[in-house]
C-alpha cells in the first residue's frame, strides 16, 4: 500500500471538509424529513382544530391571486376584439370578467393597501406615494417610517440601529386567514415592507429600499466622470489601470466606504466585472446577471447585488444596489429566511421596491432595449418565485403581484399599442402567464386575476402649485418666482393651500400645519372655491380637471387626517407635474410632458379602472378593489369583519 | 523530496519534533486549501452551496407538508452528489502531494528513536539464497535475540536495540535509524530503489546486493499535546485542518 497506514480516512484539508459537510447534509436531510413526519400529525391536528373554527363553510381549498399591476381593461378589451389574449378570454368566459373600481387616487400604494385590507384609504392611512409632514411642509414616504436609534447590545456596547415601521394601518386579510389555520404565501404585494408576521410566507414588494436607503439610485461610471448626483442616480469616475483594467468606485450605504469594482476587457470585446471575490461576465451593451458587492460597516458586512451594462468609452451603468436576498441587511421577508430560501431556489432576484430603473431610461443612461431586458429579467425572476409558491402549497392562499405591466406601460405608452408594439407584446406575455397559471390550478381551487388600476396617457403636466400661486392661494416670498425644492421660498403667512404628492391639495390649516393660517371656519368655503376654479381649468378647449373630491366626502375612518384635503382628478393625458409632487413651483401651470414616462394612472379614478377576472361566476356588475379581501375570506370560510368596506362577490 | 523536507525542517532540528510536525501541518493546510481553490470550480460550489442551504431552509419552512419536505430532501441529496462530483477533481489532484507529504512525515515522526531501552525487530528477505556464513556482531547496536532463519521463504529475523539512534549490521547490509536530529528520516527498511520508493516510502533505504528487502518493526511514538497522547497523524490532521480553515477564511475559499 502506498498510503501510510493511518491515512485511509483522510483526504486532505478542503476536500476533507467537503466530504464531512456532505455527510452532514445527508444527516440533515434525513433528520429534518423524520422531524417533518413526526410533527406532521401534530401540526395537521392543530391546523384542523383551527380550521374547524371557521365560521363559514369554505367554498374551495385554495385561492390564487395573480396581480398584474396596471393592466388596463380598455386594452384587454381592445386586444380581445383583435382575437388576442385567448387565455384571459377563456377565463372570462368560464368565470367572470369585470372592470374593477379602484381607489381615489388610483395609484398602487393606495389601491394595493385597499386590496389587502378591504378598507377605504381613510382606514388604512395610505393616500399617495408621499404624505405631508404638515409641521415642516415636507413630502415623506407614506408607507414606511425609518428611524435611527442607539441601542446597547448584551455587552453594553452602544450601536446605531436603523429600524423601519410600516405605516399602513388595518389588517391584511391573510392575517385573518392565519387565525383560522389557513396559510398564505404573499409575494411582492406593494406596501408590505417591512414584512409583518403572518401564518405563512411573505416577500415584501414596493417600498423596499436599496442599500443607499433610497427607492432606487443607480451609478454611472465613466472616464473623467465627476462625482455628481442627479435625479435617480450618482455619477462616478472610472480610472484606467494597467493592462486593460479599469477601476470604479460604487458608493454604498451611508457610513460605508465605496467599494471598488474592477473591469477588464477580454479579447472578444466583452468584459469581466470583479468585486471582491465575485466575478461576472458582461457582454458589451447588454445587461449582466447579478454581481454581489460587499460593503463593510465596522465589522458588519452589508451585501448588495447589482447588474451592470458597459458601453463604449467605457461607460459603466450599475443598477441600484438591491439588498442581497441571500444575506439581507434589512428584513425582506417573513420569516426572515424565506428570502434566502427563494434566492437559492430560484436564483438571485431584484428586491428593490421599484426594481425597473425608469430614471435611467428617462436620463438616457439606459436605452429602451436594455430597459426592456431589465424589465423582462425581473419578470422571469418573479415568475420563478410564483411557480415555486404554486408548487409548494396545495391549500390556503397564494398572492403574487407582477410589476412589469405597470413599468412597461409607464415608459412605452407613447409608442402605441398596435400588434408588435412593446405594450402589445407585454399583454400577450401576461396572457401566457395567466394560461400557465390556469393550467396549474387544481380542482377545488379558485383563481383571481386582477389589476389595481388601469392606464392612460400622460402628455401634459399640471403644476398645481403654480396654479395655486396664480390664483392667489399660495404666495411666494419677495423676488421668488420659482421654487426648486420643498417649498423653499413660500410665504406661509399668506399661503392658504399647497399641493403635495401626485394628487392632493392641502389647506394650510391653523394648528395643523406648522405655519397654518386658515381657520376651520374658513376651510369649507375655501375648499369649495378651489374646486370651482379647478374645474374651470382648461388647456385650450380641453378640460384638464375632471373631478375634484374632498377627503371628508369620500373617505371614512380614523386616518383621514393623513389625507390631503382636496383630491383633484385630472382628465386623460393630464397629471400632476414632477416638481409639485415634492413642493416645487414652476413657471407654467400646464406644459408638455417630454419625459420617457408618458403613460400614467394618476387621474380621475373612474378613468383608470382595473380588471377583475375570477375563475367562478359572480353577480356583481361593479366590483371594487376593496371587495377582493372579503371575497377571499368568504371563499376560504372566514367571515369578513364588519369594518371592511368591501362586500363578498 | 527528502532534501526539500530537510531544508524546510532545518530551523526545527534542535527543537521538540512536535514543532516541526506542526509547522509542516500548517504549511500543508494552507497549501492544500490554495490548491483546492485553484483546482475546484469555486463559482459552481458557491452556487450549489447556496442552493443546498436554500433547500435546507425550505425543509424548515414547509415542515407542515411532508411531500414538500421529501421533495426538498431528495433535491438536497441530489445536490450533495453534485457537490461530491465537484470535489472529485481537486480531491484527485490533492491526493498525490498529500500522500508524498504524509509519507515524509511518517518517515520522520512516526517511530521512536532507536535506543538501548527500545527493542525492535527486523526481517531480511534474501533475493536468491541465504548466506551460509556466520554474521558476527553488529557495528552499532546490539542483537538481543539469535537470528531466526526460515529457509523456505529466504527470510531471517532477529530483534535488536540501537545505539545513538542507529543499528548498523554491515554483514547483512542493514543500516536502520536516524541521525538523531529532530525531524530527520528514520530508516526502517530497505527495498530496490525506484521512483515509488523515493516518493512514497522515504523510510526505506536501497537494498544491499543479494537482499530483496528489509522490514523492521520499530515502536511508534506519541506526542503529548494538551495533556493527551497524539499520534503524528492526529497532530497532522488537526493542525493542517485548523490552518486550512484559517486559509479558507483568509483566501475566501468556498469549500
Please tell me about this protein's structure.
Chain A is α+β, with helices and mostly antiparallel strands and 649 residues long. Chain A has three domains: 22-213 and 329-455 and 607-635, Alkaline Phosphatase, subunit A; 218-323, no CATH class; 458-606, no CATH class. Chain A contains 15 helices and 34 strands. In chain A, the strands form nine sheets. In chain A, strands 9, 10, 11, 12, 13, 14, 15, 18 and 19 form a nine-stranded mixed sheet that branches. Chain A has an eight-stranded mixed sheet with strand order 2-34-23-1-22-7-8-21, sandwiched between helices. In chain A, strands 24, 31, 32 and 33 form a four-stranded mixed sheet that branches. In chain A, helix 3 (86-94) packs across helix 11 and helix 6 packs parallel to helix 15 (628-635). The N and C termini of chain A lie far apart (79 Å). The model of chain A is unreliable at 1-10 (pLDDT under 50). Chain B is α+β, with helices and mostly antiparallel strands and 255 residues long. Chain B folds into two domains: 2-9 and 17-110 and 232-250, no CATH class; 120-220, no CATH class. Chain B is elongated and about 80 Å long. The mean pLDDT of chain B is 84. At the A-B interface, helix 1 and helix 7 of A face helix 2, helix 3, helix 4 and helix 6 of B.
The name CATH uses for the topology of the largest domain in chain A is Alkaline Phosphatase, subunit A
Output the structural class of chain B: alpha+beta
Determine the mean pLDDT of chain A.
Answer: 91
Query: Radius of gyration of chain B in whole Å, from Cα?
Result: 25 Å
Order of helices and strands of chain B: HHHHEEEEEEEHEEEEH
According to DSSP, the number of beta strands of chain B is 11
Q: Multimeric state of these chains?
A: heterodimer
Unreliably modeled segments of chain B: none
Question: Low-confidence stretches of chain A at least 5 residues in length (pLDDT < 50)?
Answer: 1-10
Termini separation of chain B comes to 29 Å
Write the CATH homologous superfamily of the largest domain in chain A: Alkaline Phosphatase, subunit A
Give the number of helices of chain B.
Answer: 6
Biggest β-sheet description of chain A: 9 strands, mixed
Number of domains of chain A: 3
> What is the CA-CA span between the terminal residues of chain A?
79 Å
Number of strands of chain A: 34
Largest protein interface, residues of each chain: A-B, 50 and 62 residues
Largest sheet of chain B: 7 strands, mixed
Give the tally of structural domains of chain B: 2
